[in-house]
Amino acid sequence: MRGTVARLSPFGESVFTRISRLAAEHRAVNLGQGFPNFDGPDFVKEAACSAIAAGHGQYARMSGLPELNRAIAARFAADHGVTVDPDREVTVTSGCTEAIAATMLGLVEPGDEVVLVEPFYDSYPAAIAMAGGTLRTVRMRAPDFHFPVDELRRAVGPRTRLILINSPHNPTGRVLTDAELGAIADIAMKAGCLVVSDEVYEHIWFERPHRSIASLPGMAERTIVLSSLGKTFSLTGWKIGWAVAPPHLTAGIRAAHQFLTFATTTPLQHAAVVALQAPATYHERLRADYAARRQAMLEALRGAGLDPLTPQGAYFVLCDHTRLGFAGDEAFCEHLIRQVGVAAIPCSPFHADPAGASHLVRFAFCKDLATIHEAGTRLKAGLRGLAAVPGS
Ligand code: GLN
User: Is the pTM here over 0.90, yes or no?
Assistant: First the structure.
């Protein structure tokens, strides 16, 4: 009997679901799936409770609660210097993942090419497959993960509908430089294609501030900026996301969104308005807290004899495990979960062809310091003898 459609069957169970399940089974410290193990801020939670108590229990407007669209547009203007029309250029979605799917379903024709940057977030190729698009890839490579501009130039052609970028980047932590963004913009403008920019980690950067490619000259008219509340407010389960795009592209996104989820949960949209009005000090504090967690994570990994690659943004650290002698990232992560009691994510699933991409594993540091320290203690004890011998 037929089951899953052919275009989705290659994706199987997501690596995050699989690793979280294994972590729970083995009581491992879960540094796999990227969700904070601490709660979002009280002022946002209280706003949600008040919205429920006030009776906001029916469908919101399909494209978003008008106040939330206005709050998103106001932040966009303040953060990126780009003025957008809240009613015609902002769409509220059920998390950024829905925005990614709606963008692909509403703007990509079967056969259109979409260029992804490896390593990529796992929902991108699945959304492209659902839309019937054709995947092309370019790759950011360790240890510095610079953007492969020449590769992109070669990958983009007359059939390219869009280039999907993500900065700050999951899983490498790259924050793209102005020069890299400029080169991508130049390629997109010459090819006449769109850019989708996933900016969900926009407020988590450590040295160089995040900049949106939509703020570059000529780019707002061809860019779809996607973001969400989840990472910035440590509320990944609320699933409030949004897409900002010029009206003719917003029309495509909404054409899909209205039949995917129709509208996003109403009381949490009311609370999102309050969240987006947070003062600059909230974001400064968020960054300072994440800088401390990054430091603790780097020290924990170094203390266990590993060589972590320092991220510039987002909340993940990559490590090359190859000198420990495991067959690959999956084997290393299995060992970590079962024998060491720490869960990390293998990075090969973030590639179109996992073969030849199994040298990196990802540790999430969106965890309280005690959890990061506990992981460090377990790694140090569990990897003793394995990690200490370079070249072994
Ligand atoms: N964004 C999260 C991560 O990269 C995972 C979200 C999910 O499980 N789909 O870890």
Answer: yes
